[in-house]
Design brief:
- The protein is an alpha+beta fold and 286 residues long.
- Helix content is 15%, strand content 33%.
- Strands 1, 2, 3, 4, 5, 6, 7, 8, 11, 12, 14 and 17 form a 12-stranded mixed beta sheet that branches. Strands 9-19-18-15-16 form a 5-stranded mixed beta sheet, with no helix packed on it. A two-stranded antiparallel ribbon has the order 10-13.
- Strand 15 (204-209) and strand 16 (212-218) form a beta hairpin.
- The longest helix is centred in the C-terminal third of the chain and has 11 residues, at 226-236.
- The two termini are 36 Å apart.
Amino acid sequence: MFLVRYDVDGAAALGVLKDGAVFAIAELVPDAPDDMIALMQAKGTLFSRLRDAIASGEARGLPVETVKLLSPVERPGKFICLGLNYLEHVKEGGRDVPEFPTLFLRVQTSLLPPDGEIVAPVVSDKLDFEAELLVVIGKSGHNIPEYKALEHVFGYSAFNDGSIRDYQRRTTQWTAGKNFDATGPFGPAIVTADALPPGASGLSIRSRLNGEIMQDGNTADMMFSVARIIADISEIMTLEPGDLIATGTPSGVGFARKPPIFMKAGDLIEIEIEGMPVLANRVVTA
């Protein structure tokens, strides 16, 4: 199931995206929660009721192109990112192969809704793209064993970890290069975990810049699986419903190309992960 948040007269509503249409959850199941995190924690038969309501043919959806989609999670409590999780990307960056997941955090002002415009900063011309699988946590946990980790996953989404490379490489800490305002779009939907293979493994993952494929990888190539990532992070901090974890990017990023290719105003960057709606964003100047 593809779950979305969308705008209705200035207020956020929840919907199911299916066959190019958005169906209002409040109309499908009137007693359903109206908040995405509450929806993740819903018990009982809610999701089967949603499926049955759509399958009945009585519901009428809105064409998705007429709907303004919002960030699937409005303000995630934690936005945790993983670096160096695909071997070929590690090699193209001249890094050592890590023994443990390399973690950093994203702040709220760096994030964007699925149709938001990525802002190229005035202080740098090295705005890079990174296609990433995003994990959506649906169940709280601390010190989660790896064999139980996938029980804490509600679903998955797409993320573009827009990176300002010269700022990223100023120090050994990546926070500066990864947190410029309006550089990290995610969405457009949360794909529930039951709609994808366990751990979202074996999915093609691509980035396209102005229609040209830049990155072309597969989530099966992640050195640290979704389960391992969750287990490791939960040793450090309690994971809570609505927390998001970006799982790293495959090779083919702009800075490693010869000559380098960076995003600029007017560009269209698309992130495509198998089994998910495409995340597409324009780039503008600050």
